Amino acid sequence: MPSALDPAEPILSDQGTPYSPRYDDVYHSVEGGLAQARHVFLGGNGLPQAWQGREQFVIVETGFGQGLNFLATWQAWRDDPRRCARLHFVSIEKHPFTREGLAALHADLEELAPLAQQLQAAWPLALPGLHRLAFDGGAVVLTLALGDVQALLPRLAVGADAFYLDGFAPARNADMWDPVVMKGLARLARPGATLATYTAAGFVRRGLQAAGFEVSKAPGFGSKRDMTVARVPAERRRRHAPPSPGAWTRRHAMVIGAGLAGCAVTERLAARGWRVTLIDAHDGPARETSAHRAAAMHPHLSPDDSVLSRLSRAGNLHALRAWQALAEAGHPVGWHGCGVLQVGQDDEDTALQQRALAELGFPAEYVRWMSAQQAADEHGATVARGGLWFPQGGWVAPPDVCRAQLAMAGAAVETRFGCRIASLHRTDDGWQVFDEAGRPVAEAPVLVLANAHHASGLLPLRHLPIRRVRGQLTTLEPGDVARLGRWPDCVVTGSGYLLPRDGDGSARIGSSYEPDEGSLVERVETHADNLRRLSALLPDRSAAVSALDPAALHGYVGVRSVSHNRLPWVGQVADEAECERRAASLRGAHLRDLPRLPGLYVALAFASRGLTWAALAGELLASRIEGEPLPVESDLADALDPARLLLRALRHGQHGGDGQDAERDTGRDAEPDAGQGAGRPGQALSG
């Protein structure tokens, strides 16, 4: 069962040092936090020298506290003319400060005040999981892992070059120094990784030694005589090594598909210095499912904080940060953060929503309860019952997101629009793609398929099924909207959904979720269904809604691409042929054991949550390609892995099947929505 985070309070000791009543200990030495950070953690890890000349350097910290170690490291990186190109700082914190608490503790950081203010501005809500914050144009990346160290550390997908062990004193916070934690750190250590901590306690040193570190003492900071430093032998061998930095001979990728998925991947690779050839069969970006002019986005909530809920939360939060970064760079996406009200479809649904709120205990700034009266008074949403209010939810036009991402990528992207790829060919140095006439179009070491259901024609893998689901939106013209009375100024979702008025006074409602049969033309009966969904959302408008003629309405029709359990396929493609040859030895395998096709990745089957998944999927793929820390926990990344059905088939001895059996067998893995059920009518085309 998930537990809410318990934020720390900005309390000072009698000596004026930040203090924790929970652990009865100070956050840093009374002789100076920044000086301690520089002596113990930077000095103990041989920084800045250790990162000089590298493309990438990764630091893992236990205990973020008020962030002095991060700020000192960031400043040292800025001051170093030979610094690494990209610095990753991954820090675990069980009791994060609020933004206001952090600002209070940073009030006296004179030399680091500008950096501290940037950290405060980017500081996330106290929500469990990973939060990725980027600074200095993405060259410095802070990944905050909020939660208990023993729960989170095994789920970090990180290759670390250095460790900062900075929990409260071992006598006050034994869990942070447990041998299990030491083994977890060793699991993440790249060959030659270093470690430093302020303590010289014997059991800490013995725990590190037992985990495989070479341990020694060094002069301590201030009044402390000794501290501990350690190193992982460069020749240490393990069955599963941590991720290594990418070693590509050419940083060039082809991306097929210029919708939400492809544009997000393109922008994320370009931000890392890659050259990208973006290919699409249409005459520009966002011409298929991503073409509609309005899509809503809000998180999923469930009492058990399911994989779907955690991924939805990670995706929503990451998308909002990514879009803010685009806006700050001069490429706004036109996000309308009007809030989203999700109402239960019946009393049972409503009770489930309220139970989720109570059990999760998330901050009200993320989600809270809104009564029907409040919804009507504050937003003009005359719903029948209360629901979940997501203050950070809203809507956006997917084509605007795509255009902003391509503008951000700039000259790093070469577009090939109006080019339909018909086949792929693996080469000695990567991949080559060909058009319908058999002519070569482009070649590169990396190929990403982000072209929805069209990928099935290029990559006919048995265990990567994608089905097509039709969706139709209905547009209400300004006059129709006016006849329905005060229109809600927020997104309302439940048995269907409605969006606020557009700039011209029109509004959109929807949407259908039906088999993809026949041509993609509007159906009068589906417009009638959308009107019935509107009446269910706003029952007091039923009479006025029934007066509208479905035959006179128009809208948008698109196709969603959906996986077996409605979670997308994001990651490196497995080598199915090799897996089948080695099937006997892979019966007890894990995902990391499966052979993969070098340089071939997918970002597919985003179903009804294109806005939620796309930005996160782009960051996840780019991180995998570069060997960087992943932006989500490993179990969440595994839940998206394109080899997940293949792994199940191997474990069940079904590797020779046609893939349809695997899809049927895993149907029980589909995770229903709370309130807006996966597969129920009324789902957004992208959100």
TrEMBL record:
Domain FAD dependent oxidoreductase intervals: 254-623
Compositionally skewed regions (Basic and acidic residues) per UniProt: 661-671
InterPro entries the UniProt entry points to: FAD-dep_OxRdtase, FAD/NAD-bd_sf, MnmC-like_methylTransf, SAM-dependent_MTases_sf, tRNA_MAMT_biosynth_bifunc_MnmC, tRNA_MNMC2, tRNA_S-uridine_synth_MnmC_C
Residue span of region tRNA (mnm(5)s(2)U34)-methyltransferase: 1-233
Molecular function GO labels: flavin adenine dinucleotide binding; oxidoreductase activity, acting on the CH-NH group of donors; tRNA (5-methylaminomethyl-2-thiouridylate)(34)-methyltransferase activity
EC number(s) from the headed UniProt entry: 2.1.1.61, 1.5.-.-
Domain MnmC-like methyltransferase span(s) in chain numbering: 111-231
Alphabetical GO biological process terms: methylation; tRNA wobble base modification
UniProt xrefs under Pfam families: DAO (PF01266), Methyltransf_30 (PF05430)
Catalytic activity: 5-aminomethyl-2-thiouridine(34) in tRNA + S-adenosyl-L-methionine = 5-methylaminomethyl-2-thiouridine(34) in tRNA + S-adenosyl-L-homocysteine + H(+)
Gene3D superfamilies per UniProt: D-Amino Acid Oxidase, subunit A, domain 2 (3.30.9.10), FAD/NAD(P)-binding domain (3.50.50.60), Vaccinia Virus protein VP39 (3.40.50.150)
Location of region: FAD-dependent cmnm(5)s(2)U34 oxidoreductase: 256-687
Co-factor(s): FAD
Subcellular localization(s) per the UniProt record: Cytoplasm
Alphabetized UniProt keyword annotations: Cytoplasm, FAD, Flavoprotein, Methyltransferase, Multifunctional enzyme, Oxidoreductase, S-adenosyl-L-methionine, Transferase, tRNA processing
GO CC annotation, single: cytoplasm
HAMAP family associated with the record: MnmC
PANTHER family assigned to the protein according to its UniProt record, in alphabetical order: SARCOSINE DEHYDROGENASE-RELATED, TRNA 5-METHYLAMINOMETHYL-2-THIOURIDINE BIOSYNTHESIS BIFUNCTIONAL PROTEIN MNMC
Family stated for the protein in its record: In the N-terminal section; belongs to the methyltransferase superfamily. tRNA (mnm(5)s(2)U34)-methyltransferase family.
Function: Catalyzes the last two steps in the biosynthesis of 5-methylaminomethyl-2-thiouridine (mnm(5)s(2)U) at the wobble position (U34) in tRNA. Catalyzes the FAD-dependent demodification of cmnm(5)s(2)U34 to nm(5)s(2)U34, followed by the transfer of a methyl group from S-adenosyl-L-methionine to nm(5)s(2)U34, to form mnm(5)s(2)U34.
NCBIfam families: MnmC_Cterm (TIGR03197), PRK01747.1-2 (NF002481), PRK01747.1-4 (NF002483), tRNA_MNMC2 (NF033855)
Protein's name according to its UniProt entry: tRNA 5-methylaminomethyl-2-thiouridine biosynthesis bifunctional protein MnmC
